[in-house]
């Protein structure tokens, strides 16, 4: 039956990818909820989305303004028609301030949950979260509701708290929490549209601005493409698939470690003539105390490139000292035969594209 | 291989001792005074307008001469960080005449003449930046190995920043200053165990952030390779005498190298800032003055500089170290 899927944050990086995937793979109408302060901003966002989604979107999409920091955020949407909701709106910077994270990520999710409760025909409320809602825990992380064990930044905390908002309604609403990995490229070709701590760290290494490597080299890092992630989310929106918590990530056995990824990146860098000429060395692994000292020293560097880049990297870097393995048994059961990108091949192609594009624009965003 | 000894560490600083706040208020810095203070800098020394780099070199040589430590020198290695300090000529004369001989008024030659070191040949060293003092000791050692008739080499480094220059480089508060020591076949306070240098010309035009960015990996490599050359390990070092730079830097490096931070010595930093290529000598002189250096102890002197260059010496204290400490 044709339904209506609401996507919040539809003009964000992943929101756009999801909208495109749902247009291509289903027949639902889409309500694309975007944040807009006025009609001019809304019109501009409508134009951009129309360009990105193509002519096929015209008859099946409606773009609405929705600021989830306001109680009447989704008042323009007819709740009777809504069958699925994907909550992609969030502040996704690792260095987000606590107040902003509370207001947007936590309170915004609570408002969305209240909206979902008014949708009588709702078949799925899917909240996009992060694997790092696991916070400071080490070892195996299962696809289940998590206790608060502390967090290394406000972003992680806010996504965990937002999960709590959604999972607290699990008996009343068909809710799923989809924990996402670090998105390093649009697709297997390595093209990068959205830059985050992964890219900014590599940038520091490539340009010789950082010669210390924070973290335990054996720490697994779940990387994926936006394309893979959008496919997984699309799959998990199917009402026939059980609701619950899912880790959208490669199998543990197919997850690269920090050491492997750094080795791959430098193998690519070292083939670049400009990098060769500068004779930059591979970074030295350092303990957490040393990394903290580095951050403290970098605070004094006049807001130069080291300071700026480290400020986006450091809130995540603490996770590199907390090795954890994200189990994805539920995902595998729900999506037999799925194929996640090979992490080292993905890292290699991504690094090549980063060098070609000189790291593109400087937007900093996390999964 | 003939043993070579290093002794008679002296230094001289610009006459005006100025607080970082005062220099910042006068527009003489790039960073804020607060940031430099947080990095461990407080005071620095600036030459009077009429004082030249050569005057500083002459002052340290005078100290050696007056204390009978200059001796019969076979060579002078005269090192400067800034190449312009390798010319003592009058810039106005050059501008007026366009005669390049005014660009070749070599301070090493002046030093030889002014101190009557007529036997000494002179060698200028001006492309090793802040590492040049350590480079001059290395060069002196090499020359003593091949020049069988030579016994004694005077190593001098002297720099002052030109009038109007910012007294900050790569986030370090700069002092004008000079240093000297004598490298000799005759036993002295320290036996030179080994010397090592790395140059990465690919970073020759590195900006401040790239210079800082490469500091840890290259300094770590420098020390590791120097220890390997000497057949030593980090545990064999009793002291690490560093350049004066952000005080966090060596807390990090000490951990990376496996050297206890209590062995790392850069006590002069708050009082003198980064005295260009004289830092190691200033700090070593202060370490000797504490009386804590014992015969048999090994000291690594470590410096990074533009170019980019990294240099390290390992010295081993002899029985003469106590006398040197009392004398210097």
How would you describe the overall organization of this protein?
Chain A has 367 residues and is an alpha/beta fold. Chain A has two domains: 4-183 and 222-252, NAD(P)-binding Rossmann-like Domain (Rossmann fold, 3-Layer(aba) Sandwich), CATH 3.40.50; 190-220 and 255-322 and 342-357, no CATH class. Chain A has helices at residues 13-25, 39-53, 98-117, 154-167, 197-206, 226-236, 258-269, 273-278, 288-298, 305-317, 329-334, 343-357; strands at 4-8, 29-34, 61-65, 82-87, 124-130, 139-141, 175-180, 182-185, 212-214, 223-225, 244-247, 284-286, 324-326. In chain A, the strands form four sheets. Chain A has a seven-stranded parallel beta sheet with strand order 3-2-1-4-5-7-11, with helices on both faces. In chain A, β1, α1 (13-25) and β2 (29-34) form a beta-alpha-beta unit. In chain A, α3 (98-117) runs parallel beside α4 and α5 (197-206) crosses α10. Chain A is globular and about 60 Å long. The two termini of chain A are 32 Å apart. The model of chain A is unreliable at 362-367 (pLDDT under 50). Chain B has 328 residues and is an alpha/beta fold. Chain B folds into two domains: 5-184, 3-Layer(aba) Sandwich (Peroxisomal Thiolase, Chain A, domain 1), CATH 3.40.47; 190-327, 3-Layer(aba) Sandwich (Peroxisomal Thiolase, Chain A, domain 1), CATH 3.40.47. In chain B, 34% of the residues lie in helices and 24% in strands. Chain B has helices at residues 20-25, 33-38, 53-66, 91-97, 107-114, 132-146, 208-230, 247-257, 269-272, 279-289, 321-327, and strands spanning 5-13, 16-19, 43-46, 75-79, 121-125, 152-159, 168-169, 172-173, 177-184, 190-199, 239-241, 264-265, 298-305, 309-317. In chain B, strands 5-4-6-9-1-10-14-13-11-12 form a ten-stranded mixed beta sheet, sandwiched between helices. In chain B, a hairpin with a 2-residue loop joins β7 and β8. Chain B starts with a strand and ends with a helix.
């Amino acid at each position: 039956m044709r339904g209506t899927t609401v996507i919040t944050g539809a003009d964000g990086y992943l929101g756009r990818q999801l909208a495109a995937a749902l247009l291509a793979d289903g027949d639902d109408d889409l309500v694309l909820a975007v944040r807009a302060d006025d009609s001019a901003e809304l019109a501009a966002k409508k134009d951009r989305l129309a360009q990105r989604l193509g002519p096929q979107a015209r008859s099946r999409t409606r773009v609405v303004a929705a600021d989830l920091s306001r109680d009447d955020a989704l008042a323009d949407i007819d709740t009777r028609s809504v069958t699925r909701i994907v909550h992609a709106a969030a502040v996704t910077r690792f260095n987000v301030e606590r107040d902003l994270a509370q207001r947007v990520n936590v309170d915004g999710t609570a408002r969305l949950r209240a909206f979902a409760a008014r949708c009588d025909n709702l078949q799925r409320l899917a909240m996009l979260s992060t694997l790092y809602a696991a916070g400071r825990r080490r070892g195996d992380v299962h696809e289940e509701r998590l206790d608060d064990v502390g967090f290394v930044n406000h972003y992680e905390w806010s996504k965990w708290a937002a999960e709590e908002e959604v999972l607290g309604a699990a008996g009343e609403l068909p809710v799923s929490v989809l924990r996402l990995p670090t998105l390093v490229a649009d697709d297997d070709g390595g093209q990068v549209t959205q830059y985050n701590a992964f890219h900014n760290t590599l940038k520091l290494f490539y340009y010789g601005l950082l010669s210390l490597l924070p973290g335990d080299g054996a720490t697994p890092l779940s990387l994926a493409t936006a394309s893979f992630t959008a496919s997984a989310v699309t799959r998990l929106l199917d009402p026939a698939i059980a609701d619950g918590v899912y880790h959208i990530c490669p199998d543990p056995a197919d997850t690269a470690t920090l050491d492997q990824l750094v080795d791959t990146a430098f193998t690519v860098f070292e083939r670049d003539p400009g990098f060769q000429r500068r004779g930059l060395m591979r970074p030295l692994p350092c303990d957490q105390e040393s990394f903290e000292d580095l951050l403290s020293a970098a605070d004094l560097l006049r807001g130069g490139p080291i300071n700026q880049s480290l400020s986006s990297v450091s809130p995540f870097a603490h996770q590199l000292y907390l090795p954890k393995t994200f189990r994805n048994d539920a995902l595998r059961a729900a999506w037999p035969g799925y194929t996640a990108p090979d992490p080292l091949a993905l890292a290699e192609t991504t690094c090549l594209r980063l060098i070609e594009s000189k790291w593109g624009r400087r937007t900093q965003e996390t999964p | 291989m003939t043993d070579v000894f290093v002794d008679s560490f002296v230094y001289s600083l610009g006459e005006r001792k100025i607080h970082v706040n005062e220099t910042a208020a006068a527009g003489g810095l790039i960073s804020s005074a607060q940031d430099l203070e947080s990095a461990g800098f407080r005071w620095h020394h600036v030459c009077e307008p009429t004082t030249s780099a050569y005057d500083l070199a002459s002052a340290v040589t005078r100290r050696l001469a007056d204390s009978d430590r200059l001796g019969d020198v076979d060579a002078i290695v005269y090192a400067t960080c800034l190449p312009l300090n390798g010319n003592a000529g009058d810039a106005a004369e050059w501008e007026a005449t366009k005669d390049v001989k005014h660009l070749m008024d070599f301070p090493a030659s002046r030093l030889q003449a002014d101190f009557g070191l007529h036997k000494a040949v002179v060698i200028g060293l001006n492309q090793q930046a802040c590492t040049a003092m350590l480079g001059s000791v290395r060069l002196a050692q090499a020359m003593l190995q091949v020049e069988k008739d030579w016994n004694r080499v005077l190593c001098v480094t002297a720099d002052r920043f030109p009038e109007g220059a910012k007294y900050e480089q790569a986030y370090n508060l700069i002092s004008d200053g000079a240093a000297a020591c004598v490298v000799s076949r005759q036993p002295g306070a320290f036996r030179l165990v080994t010397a090592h240098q790395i140059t990465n010309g690919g970073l020759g035009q590195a900006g401040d952030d790239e210079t800082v960015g490469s500091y840890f990996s290259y300094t770590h490599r420098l020390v590791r390779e120097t220890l390997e050359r000497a057949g030593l390990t980090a545990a064999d070092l009793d002291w690490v005498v560093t350049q004066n730079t952000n005080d966090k830097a060596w807390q990090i490096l000490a951990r990376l190298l496996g050297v206890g931070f209590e062995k790392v010595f850069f006590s002069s930093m708050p009082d003198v800032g980064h005295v260009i290529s004289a830092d190691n000598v200033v700090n070593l002189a202060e370490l000797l003055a504490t009386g804590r250096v014992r015969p048999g102890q090994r000291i690594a002197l470590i410096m990074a500089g533009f170019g980019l260059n990294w240099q390290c010496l390992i010295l081993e204290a002899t029985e003469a170290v106590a006398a040197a400490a009392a004398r210097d």
